[in-house]
Amino acid sequence: KELQKQKDRARNAISNTFGDWTVYHDGEDVEFLGYDCTEIDGALLLKQRTVVQKNKEMLQLVFDRTPFYGEMGGEVGDTGVIVSEDGEEIKILNTVKENNLTIHIAERLPQNCAGAFVLRVDATRRKKIAANHSCTHLLDRALREILGTHVEQKGSFVCDKNFRFDFSHFEKLSEEQIVAVEHRVNELIRENYQLEEKRDATMEEAIGMGAIALFGEKYGDRVRVVKFGPSVELCGGCHTSATGNIGLFKIVSESAIAAGIRRIEAVTGEEAETYVYGLQELVKTARSLFNNVPDLAGAIRHLIEDNATYKKQAEEFAKQKAAEFAKLLASRARDVNGVKLISVAGADLTADADPTFLRNAALALQKELQNTALVAAFTYDGKPQLLLMYSDDLVAKGKNAGKDIREAAKFILGGGGGQPGLASAGGKDASGLDKAMETLVSVATS
């Protein structure tokens, strides 16, 4: 019952509640003017309603005409403001498409809903979105040229900060291919191809122009063709007037999102500049750490190689120290109920001894000794630790360190386990170490 209540609460939290439309002017058709402008006046508010989504109340407004682009085809919706006849300014937080209506998400309801409105899109944000959207077309063209005509767009997301582009391809792009794609897109940008569009083409006309239909889009009898030089696609989104406005294109990442589907994330314009400056600063900082050597890559490669060598040497030294410590422990073995018992407490360990060090020592003893058990109870990094080792012959007789250590771990409010011959445990309460040690000694020698 409690689980069902949780499911019901979750369902209610994400459910949408739509209020009834309040109608101010007749009409259902909304004229989109955003291809040609980002601001209009004299717009009439046809209707509004309140929507509760994820426990947040929002106002939805529908006008007879609008320059606001509603989120669609991977492109985010416009933001901006509306201004009433009496000068009241209200923010538009987002714009979406629903049942062929362009719906403006407003922060609040205008006081005067009957008059005419000025609708003003955030033009700076729109300009960046349009540049990114146009760049997805150039990227699509470049990928088909460099990787092959098997490449098909499988999805996209375009906003003012960046964009991502999903496409069909059978393998990870090489560094050379990424460089080639970047170069080709930037080449198309520098060519400064002007936007050519046919807004009311038949599908036959569009195909005759060489247009490529975008993945997931539904097209009617009449379509819009967007052309930038060699790039020709069917698209209803917002675009820059010329490719030169994009400025610069830079790939940030390339990855797989599904079998046979790759994703490129990229930035353009000022965002691309900022990204490049960040990379340059990173290289500058790295070079300064190597005393500004000319061959930074070589210096880093040598550092990695040296580090691997030093790490291997350190591991060998640690094993040697553990073997020496194992000999010391072996000399301290005492007979308890016919078992050679070696007990190790915190005072027996040096400050730099860690659980791995003691484990290596126990492994060395396990290979060399017979009829021997090692029990250890100590703290490391402020936390209680236990270790239990049985020699191979004791394991053959039925001893199981992984099972036995669990009983002792209860006293340090912890848990553990391992193999029959070697097990460890950690806990939270160091005050129980003495009792844990007593338990280990008891099970090891019984």
Task: Tell me what the structure shows.
There is one protein chain. The protein has 3 domains: about 110 residues, Elongation Factor Tu (Ef-tu), domain 3, CATH 2.40.30.130; about 160 residues, Threonyl-tRNA Synthetase, Chain A, domain 2, CATH 3.30.980; about 130 residues, Roll (Diaminopimelate Epimerase, Chain A, domain 1). It is built from 10 helices and 23 strands. Strands 4-5-9-8-7-10 form a 6-stranded antiparallel β-barrel. α2 crosses α3, α6 crosses α7 and α9 packs antiparallel against α10. It starts with a helix and ends with a helix. The model has no long low-confidence stretch (mean pLDDT about 90).
In DSSP terms (H or I, runs of 4 or more residues), the helix count works out at 10
CATH topology of the largest domain: Threonyl-tRNA Synthetase, Chain A, domain 2
* Total beta strand runs: 23
Provide the β-strand percentage band.
25-35%
**Global structural class:** alpha+beta
Distance between the termini: 49 Å
Q: What does the radius of gyration come to? A: 35 Å
Described by the principal axes of the CA atoms, the overall outline is elongated
Q: Percentage of helical residues?
A: 25-40%
- CATH superfamily assignment of the largest domain? Threonyl-trna Synthetase, Chain A, domain 2
| Level-1 CATH class name of the largest domain | Alpha Beta
Which parts are unreliable, with pLDDT below 50 for 5 consecutive residues or more? none
